[in-house]
Amino acid sequence: MSKRAIVVSEPAAGPRLSDRQRLSWLRLIRTQNVGPASFRDLINRFGSAEVALEILPELMISGGASRIARIPSIAEAEAELEAARKAGARFVGIGEPDYPPLLRSMDNPPPLLAVKGNAAVFRLPGVAIVGARNASLAGIKMARMLAASLGGDGYGIVSGLARGIDTAAHQGSLATGTIGVLAGGLDLPYPPENAGLCEEIAERGAIISEMPFGWQPRAQDFPRRNRLVAGAALGLVVVEAAQRSGSLISARLAGEMGRLVFAVPGSPLDPRAAGTNGLLKDGATLVTEASDISRAIAPLTGMRAPDVPPFEDPPDFSATPPPGESDRAKVIEALGPTRVGRRNHPPHRPAPGPGLHGVAGTRPRRPARTPCRRQCFAGFRKLKLIVSGDWSFRPGHSPACLRQRDPFRRPCATPCPHPADAMNRSSSRSLARSSAGATRQA
Q: What are phi and psi of 436, to 5 degrees?
């Protein structure tokens, strides 16, 4: 499958914020207790962020606030804008053409985003891939394969730059376009070992964050990041997630936003697959290959769905002549109780013809062996002589079959001498020496 690389294009045409407006927007969104919903209400009521900043202290006092929330100064906002410029990033407002269109359609989108990279990747239909941090090798391979295949089909891959599945998804779609969402500032990627991956993504795709520069991510910031991951895509794929994994938060948010939710099944004995198997029980779409995702998302994007192999028509037997009497006899014979290939042969003899081990028969017949009764009974006589203490036996009667087993059993059918003869002889000599010594002492 051919991969489509992202082509760096000129900035999209459309209305843009002025530097003064961007500064006021940044001050307002960085004010304490002002989130995306409050920001939108203030802009809708007062018309601009600059006016809202002037009236905000009075609104807090009239609302019964115990203290007035701190509003960032102009110098602080300018310092953050300068930090973004040094890092090669920029702040994009919700009404500007470089703002991700899928994020714009979600509930309470962030009014200002820090963006680093090529904004052309935002115009691709997005698919989010998330999963466990301590993923298995099979899960990492599956995430990388799905990302590469979907990227080759023209989709942008969105993920959270975490360890495990997220990292594999970004690596698999570097050549085709990927979007990384950070829980902290763009200058503090988390985890730190993915700093190099962030730079690669910024060169070929884009990384975004709604948090200030220099912000160290906290535990409560990751659900906010998961919300952006789910909102920036048409569908979300979960590859390996435990029962209380943060990936399930992303899946729940995606379902609330009306996005499609997919899950890769796993072993019921693997705790890393308990969350994905639970999603499948709740109605998520089962995924075993990339075409399962693209086929479900294609109607939402207008893209061509993968070709489904057509069903073959059953063969037409109408022109086949009816069977003759000989054919009927063969069918009846094949369905009869007599085994095929064993007719006219007794059950204990193999049928003629080539077999597995030889030319004539299915297995070679073992040659008959004559029991060496003379030597076996000679060994038994030897044992009787040892017990009685009488050593005047004839040398011709060799104890060749004297084994370490009950001699009263039937004679063995294995040709003598046995491999244990040397041991038997040595034990017989030691017994003879001990008996002779005892006789001399007496």
A: -65, -40
